[in-house]
Amino acid sequence: MPAEIRPARASDVDALAELENAAFQADRISKRSFRRMIGSRSATILVVAGQDAVVGYCAVLFRAGSRKARLYSIAAARGSGIGRALLGAAEDTAAARGCEEVRLEVREDNARAISLYEKCGYRRFGRKPGYYADGAAALLYEKPLHLAEPAATHRKRERS
Q: What is the pTM of this model?
């Protein structure tokens, strides 16, 4: 399990870009976009800091006046539990900002991510054909936060 989940810093941009390039073949977030999101009022990037490196991240977007957050991207080593931890941290961040729901898009052919989202309580509500640059469709998912217990509280109770 990751040692620390924290907000990204400007010094993390190179590591974020490396994770992005390793995780995705197309539709990648650029270093420039990562720099803009870090410190932005409309975005939060959370990173998992391992012993010597950033080993996972998630980006959550917020729109002024909206009670819906958007999980824009998430990347971590497969099978490490980092993705689940980041998803919980993203939900906690959204709830702390007054959001009542998190929405996301996921490639229709990304069975691993779909499984994670569904296990974590996300419900499919739509599909967008041709959403990605290579023509792949996106599935749309949402999770109401007011029905969900904050992930941090849940983790604390599991340790007891």
A: 0.85
Amino acid identity of residue 72, one-letter, is: Y
Cα–Cα nearest to 64, from 95, 36, 43 = 43
Torsion sign (Cα): 82, 37, 127, 21? negative
The residues, any chain, with a CB within 8 Å of residue 134's CB and separated by 6 or more, are: 25, 26
The Cα–Cα gap between 160 and 99 comes to 28
DSSP H stretches of helix in the chain: 13-23, 31-37, 82-96, 111-119, 151-159
Tell me the C-alpha distance between 60 and 39, whole Å.
12
pLDDT category, 101, cuts 50, 70, 90? very high
pLDDT digits (tens, 9 = 90+) for 130-145: 999 889 999 999 999 9
